[in-house]
Amino acid sequence: MSSNQIEEYKGNILIVDDTPENLQVLSATLSDRGYKVRGVINGKMAIRAAKSGSPDLILLDIQMPEMNGYAVCEQLKAAPETSKIPVIFISALDEVLDKVKSFQVGGVDYITKPFQVEEVLARVEHQLTIQRLQKQLTDRNTELQQEIIERKKAEEAAAAASQAKSQFVANMSHELRTPLNAILGFTQVMSRDPLLSHEQIENLRIINRSGQHLLELINDVLDLSKIEAGIIALDESSFDLYQLLDTLEEMFQIKAETQNLQLKFSVQSQVPQYIRTDEKKLRVCLINLLGNAIKFTASGGSIWLRASLKKVPQHRAETETYSQDKSTEQSILCLEVEDTGVGIAPAEMDTLFEAFVQTESGRKAAEGTGLGLTITKKYVQIMGGDIGVSSILDEGTIFKFNIKISTAVASEVMVMKLQRVIELEPDQPVYRILAVDDNKENRLLLVKMLQPIGFEVREAENGLLAFELWESWQPHLIWLDTRMPVMDGFEAVRQIRAKEKSTQPRTVIIALTASTFEERRGEIIAAGCDDFVRKPFQEELLFEKMASYLGVRFVYEELPTPSAGSSRRYFISEKPDSFFLSLLAEMPQNWVQELDEAANDVNEELAIKLVDRISESHPTLADALKDLLADYRLDRIVHLTKAILK
Fold first, then answer.
1. Is the pTM here over 0.85, yes or no?
2. What is the distance between the alpha carbons of residues 42 and 27, in angstroms, rounded to a whole number?
């Protein structure tokens, strides 16, 4: 190979010419330029060589014995395996018609003999470049087609996974909400017992409140699916903010005390008690942030929740409107959760709010899914606000967020009626009620709720038995579960509706469903139900539905009203340690010891009795300690008594 040769392989060329001298000249020229060359002297050999060797380009003479170049080209273009090989004609024929015919039979170029070497090289390189580009384009198109196929497969797999997840969530929702319905329901039934002590009633209240919290968590898991689908919307209502914060503080206080943490809630006095925003989303945000703060704060640390208010500047026209209706005044509610925990590394701050991403401390804790902060941020944004974080590693973290709120008035807040159904009013029919559910506990719950009030109640454990009882017993109303073996609720109601059209008066049928998906509503109503109630249900809702559909009249028992000031305890001015220590130092050592033990054992009743003993002799200290007890600050009492006993 000469020094002028280019070692890089540039292409495979087939030369067809019946003159050996021409073959030799072209072959030597092209070989020196890095092409792999093969030569044949007639058309038949050219066709065989093209089919066996798959050249990148063919240089084809026209005037040859037996088969001319035009015929050879036509056969090459007719065969699938050689149809795409470019053909350049090289001929001494210089007539226009000869050149036109060469293009008609499939040639891509035409070189006239005698040829110039540089011209041949330029035309050959041009055609091979086109060939390479076409191949690249074809390969890329193939890749794109494959990518499309793979993406389609991935989309189908994702759709199947999404459907499987939705089905799983629906099934888990049903399996969790069904026993939860019995837990919450029986706490309501048991609370009717007039012989219960104050402590037993309080225990039932705690069970019920914890069950409600668990229900909220289950609903939040379902809401995550809706967030991913982009169908979560703002659901505004007027509510008591102080009551919400009271509930959260009570919820987290026990866990904080167990981990020896100080949990403090602070609300500025200008923060209104009644506000309008999405209560559920606000609760979820605070639960997520407080839960994280407690999880990542070591024993002896502190956690604060602070709330403040910032007014939204209004234009003159808006100001005039708001001055006429104070209940719609727009403000920004600012909330922050601070802890003295492990902190967050700077490198982790950018991905903190991404789904399924956990910090190093989160992975070490081996708790959670990495979704809490993602949900919190999305909820805050839905409520018209934003969230930020600042942190120092090993010192603590502060999450701050703000949301838009409207001030509300007490009359706008939907307050549960402080009364309870105890019996039916006299002079009414004996209403027959059929309870249909495959879960024995849920049937028993309905029986225990309804029979003592004065209803006649029967049970059925599936849709088939329900249909048979409906035919023979003719109930006025059916409480019907939707998911049951043998025959589900949908089929049962369809059969009942089909038969009663011709023979029977219409029976009120209300579905009981453990599903929280709104799309089930249409399915339930379309099947023939008059209404539906989601599990777990409150007994008040059952009685309201029965009154609405049957015209039932009830006798109610008035329930005690909670203390009016119970939800304003954030604004009690906390007295400093010096105030208590000076007064406690005057008390007998044994009394301080007893108070310390009572507070340390979380024995509120004993602590109250001990404080009552000194009400007459030391009223100032007694009143201050009562404030702490009313504020559930047993931790503060322990702190003070320990300081005295030292």
1. no
2. 16
